[in-house]
Write a structure and sequence with these properties.
Two copies of one chain form a homodimer. In chain A, the strands form three sheets. A seven-stranded mixed β-sheet of chain A has the order 6-5-4-3-2-1-16. In chain A, strands 7-8-9-12-13-14-15 form a seven-stranded mixed β-sheet. A two-stranded antiparallel sheet of chain A has the order 10-11. Chain A has ten helices and 16 strands. In chain A, a hairpin with a 5-residue loop joins β10 (182-183) and β11 (189-190). In chain A, α9 (249-258) runs parallel beside α10. Chain A has helices at residues 41-47, 65-68, 71-78, 95-106, 159-164, 171-177, 215-221, 238-243, 249-258, 277-284; strands at residues 3-9, 23-28, 31-35, 55-59, 87-91, 114-118, 122-127, 130-136, 144-150, 182-183, 189-190, 204-208, 226-230, 263-267, 290-292, 298-300. Chain A has two domains: 3-153 and 200-300, Metallo-beta-lactamase, Chain A (4-Layer Sandwich), CATH 3.60.15; 159-194, no CATH class. The two termini of chain A are 12 Å apart. The model of chain A has no long low-confidence stretch (mean pLDDT 96). The longest helix of chain A is centred in the N-terminal third of the chain and has 12 residues, at 95-106. By secondary structure, chain A is of the alpha/beta class. The A-B interface holds A 13-17, 20-21, 39-40, 42-43, 46-47, 63-66, 68-70, 72-73, 76-77, 80, 97-98, 101-102, 105-108, 141 and B 13-17, 20-21, 39-40, 42-43, 46-47, 63-66, 68-70, 72-73, 76-77, 80, 97-98, 101-102, 105-108, 141.
Chain lengths: 305, 305
C-alpha cells in the first residue's frame, strides 16, 4: 500500500501567502484521510491534486477557528461530487454542534451520508489494515492528537526454506502464505511459521497539533514513522509557547526523540517566521531527522520490508 | 479621491484554482469596502496587497455559503490587527444570525467594535462623499445588490471668469470655491455660480450577484460607471441560468445596456469555463464595454473632470 502524506496548511492562527491554515492529508492507495480543515483546505486539496471524492474520513483536532473554518465549504463542495459512501467526521466533543450548526446557518443539505463521531480518545476508524486512533493532547481547549496505524503485515515467504522442506511449488505455497498449516503428500504437516519470516511492521503516522510538549503525546507517538508536531515558536519564545499552549521547535524535537519517532515534521508555524533554516537547525540539535513543513510538501512513507 | 476596484473572487458555487469564491473590494483612498466574503477572501486580500486594517464595511449580498464562508476567518484575523474604528457588517435579514452564530460556535470574541445592519434595501453607509445603497436583486433567496456612490463634486473654479470680473486673486477665490458669495472692494457681490463650472458627477459602482436579469437591477444600476453583474453561464445555458436564478453573459450585457452603464464586469462564472474569450465575445455583441472578471484584476474608476 502506498502511504503518502501531504501538508496542506503548515501555518496557524492566521494564514499567510506561504502557509495556509492547518490541514494535512494522508493518502492510502485510493483512500484519503484529512486531519484538520482550516479555511482554504478545499483549494489546497485541488492544488495538491488530491481527489476530494476519495475522502474517507475527516479528523478534527479541536474547535479553534483556524482548524475548522474550511469544513463547511468543503462539505458543500463535496455535494457536487457523486458519492454514496458515507463520510466520517470525527473530533472532540462539540464537533457535531459546530458541523451541524454551520450547516444549518448556511442552509445546505448533505448530498451524501455523513457519520459524526465525537470522542475523547480511542479508535475512531478501522477498515482493513488501517485504523485511526485519537488521544488527548495538551492545549487551551480539549484537543485530540491522531495516529494513523497500519496493521502488521505477515512476514515474507521464505522460498528457499520451502524448497529445503520439499514442499511442492503451487497452491500449498499460497495456503502457507495465508497462514494455514498444510499436509504434504508424504504425510508431514508444515506450519506457516516454518516458511514465513517474522511479521513486518505496519507504518504509523502521528499528527499532534495544537499542543504543548506532553508526556501523553510522547506515549501516543511511540515509534511513529512520521510525527507531525506543533512547532509554533523558536526556542527563544519558550514562555510564549507555554502561555499560548503551543510548543517550540526544540520541544517538538524532544518529543520526537523521546517517542523514538523516525522523523519529525514541524507544523503550525507562527506567521512571524519567513525562513525555515534557523528553526530546523534548532530542532536538529535535539532530533536530526527534522523537517520544517511547507504547504504542499509530500512525504512518502515506505513500507517495511 | 482614488477609487479602485479589485476582484478577489470571480467564481461561484465551488472555487477553482483560477477563480476564488465571490468577493470584491473597492478601495476609496484610505478606506476599504468589501462586497461578499467567500472562503479564502482574507488570503485574496493579502494577495491583492490590500490592508485589512482599512476595512470600513463588509456588505454581504446573501447567505449562500459561497458568499459568506470566508467571513468568520476574516473577522478572527482582524482581531490580530489593532483597531478602534467600528467595522460595519451589513446584509440581508439573517446576516446577524449567521455572523453571531458562527462566532459563538467558534468561541471567539471580536477585538474591535462591530456594527451589524440587516436591511431589505436603502442607504447602508454614508460618510463624507461616499454612500452605499442596497436594493433587492432576484435570486433563489433574498439577495441584495449594492451601489457605492460618490457625491457630486463642485464644478471647477473658472479662473479666467474670475479675472474678467476683476476679483482679486487670494482668499476671495477660496470663499467662492467653497460656495460662499463674496463682496468685492468696489461693492459688487459675486455669486459662486458666476465663477464655478457645473457640478461634476460622482462615480457609481454597482455589484449585482447572484441574480437573474431583473428590471429592478437595471433601475438600481442606472448610469453606473462600472456594473459588476452575475454572468454565470454562456448564452446556450439560458434555461439553466433561469432555473438556478443566475444570469447568462448576454443577459448581463442586456442589463448593462439598458442601465446605460459605462462598463460591465462579468463575475460569478461557472467552474466549467476555462476560456474567457468566448464569453466576452457573446456579451460584447450586446454591450461592447464588457470584461470577464479575473481574480486580482484591478480597475481604476477615474474621477469626472
Amino acid at each position: 500500500m502506498v502511504i503518502k502524506l501531504v501538508i496542506l496548511g503548515s501555518g496557524g492562527t492566521v494564514p499567510t501567502l506561504s502557509r495556509n491554515l492547518p490541514a494535512m492529508a494522508i493518502q492510502c492507495d485510493g483512500l484519503l484521510f484529512l486531519f484538520d480543515c482550516g479555511e482554504g483546505t478545499q483549494l489546497q486539496l485541488m492544488r495538491a491534486r488530491l481527489s476530494m471524492g476519495k475522502l474517507e474520513c475527516i479528523c478534527i483536532s479541536h474547535l479553534h477557528g483556524d482548524h475548522v473554518t474550511g469544513l463547511p465549504g468543503l462539505l458543500m463542495t463535496l455535494g457536487q461530487i457523486p458519492r454514496e459512501r458515507p463520510l466520517l467526521i470525527c473530533g472532540p466533543p462539540g464537533i457535531t454542534e459546530y458541523t451541524e450548526g454551520t450547516r444549518r446557518l448556511l442552509g445546505f443539505q448533505y448530498q451524501y451520508p455523513v457519520e459524526m463521531l465525537e470522542t475523547s480518545g480511542g479508535v475512531v476508524y478501522q477498515e482493513g489494515p488501517l485504523r485511526i486512533e485519537a488521544a488527548p493532547a495538551e492545549h487551551s481547549c480539549f484537543t485530540l492528537a491522531y495516529a494513523l496505524i497500519e496493521a502488521e503485515r505477515p512476514g515474507r515467504f521464505l522460498i528457499e526454506e520451502a524448497e529445503r522442506l520439499g514442499i511442492p511449488a503451487g497452491p500449498l505455497y499460497g495456503r502457507l502464505q495465508s497462514g494455514q498449516a498444510v499436509t504434504l503428500p508424504d504425510g508431514r504437516t508444515v506450519q506457516p511459521s516454518a516458511v514465513m519470516g517474522p511479521p513486518r511492521r505496519g507504518r504509523k503516522i502521528v499528527y499532534a497539533t495544537d499542543t504543548r510538549p506532553a508526556e501523553r503525546v510522547i506515549q501516543f507517538a511511540r515509534g511513529a514513522d512520521v510525527l507531525i508536531h506543533d512547532g509554533m515558536f523558536d526556542d527563544d519564545l519558550k514562555d510564549q509557547a507555554q502561555m499560548k499552549w503551543h510548543s517550540t521547535v526544540v520541544q517538538a524535537a524532544q518529543v520526537a526523540r523521546q517517542a523514538q519517532a523516525g522523523r519529525l515534521l514541524l507544523t503550525h508555524l507562527s506567521s512571524r517566521y519567513y525562513a525555515d533554516a534557523p528553526l530546523a537547525e534548532q530542532a536538529r540539535q535535539v532530533f536530526p531527522a527534522t523537517t520544517v513543513a511547507r504547504d504542499l510538501m509530500e512525504i512518502d512513507v515506505p513500507m517495511y520490508k
